[in-house]
Amino acid sequence: xxxxxxxxxxxxxxxxxxxxxxxxxxxxxxxxxxxxxxxxxxxxxxxxxxxxxxxxxxxxxxxxxxxxxxxxxxxxxxxxxxxxxxxxxxxxxxxxxxxxxxxxxxxxxxxxxxxxxxxxxxxxxxxxxxxxxxxxxxxxxxxxxxxxxxxxxxxxxxxxxxxxxxxxxxxxxxxxxxxxxxxxxxxxxxxxxxxxxxxxxxxxxxxxxxxxx
Length: 213
Ligand SMILES: Nc1ncnc2c1ncn2[C@@H]1O[C@H](COP(=O)(O)OP(=O)(O)OP(=O)(O)O)[C@@H](O)[C@H]1O
Ligand SMILES: [Mg+2]
Fold this sequence. Notes:
Blueprint (H helix, E strand, L loop, with lengths): L14 E5 L6 H8 L11 E2 L2 E2 L5 H11 E4 L11 H12 L7 H11 L15 H13 L5 E5 L7 H16 L3 E5 L3 H5 L3 E6 L2 E6 L8
Parallel strand pairs: 1-6, 1-7, 4-5, 5-6
Antiparallel strand pairs: 2-3, 7-8
Helix pairs in contact: 3-4, 3-5, 4-5, 5-6
The structure holds adenosine-5'-triphosphate (ATP) and magnesium ion.
């Protein structure tokens, strides 16, 4: 069993850190929260709904609407510009009406301070700028929750702080941001955290810890 006896709630609008050594189950836990990995016992409730009862297709549609995902290695498509990368996320999710795509791309890029770079390819951007475009892509459908697995893990410390500050601002504006980090300083800026070891919670500071929802 990869995860065991895990029970926690993520408060709306929190900046929620998941900590723990390599192999402790952090990515597995995020993948369960996004419905990418399935769980065979227990329950995950998201905005009052149980996730486990959906088909793969339903889950993918659900994800497009409710969750924005940010990866450690940005995962931008190298042949598309910043703007086209964000646009593709809108097309794939089918949540926002086509007539609003242009406006939505612009507002997402503006939100992360990357509007001036809209026509650049990823290779023409720094790591921190690429990650900001990736955050714009995650924001494009205006999901209530952002999930980020080591979003600053591939950035130097100055860029890591810039990118993290952006996530912090998004949480202050009402998004719920769940992130994995190895960086103690960034973990300390969370509003709530859990620490994993061998698939279990060994330490937690969250307003809702222990309340299974
Ligand atoms: N697809 C898989 N099949 C089987 N075991 C897996 C799979 N993915 C991960 N594991 C195992 O599950 C455990 C948790 O892995 P996970 O990737 O969640 O760790 P992590 O905390 O994210 O580590 P890291 O900090 O290195 O990213 C590890 O023991 C790992 O070997
Ligand atoms: Mg991991």
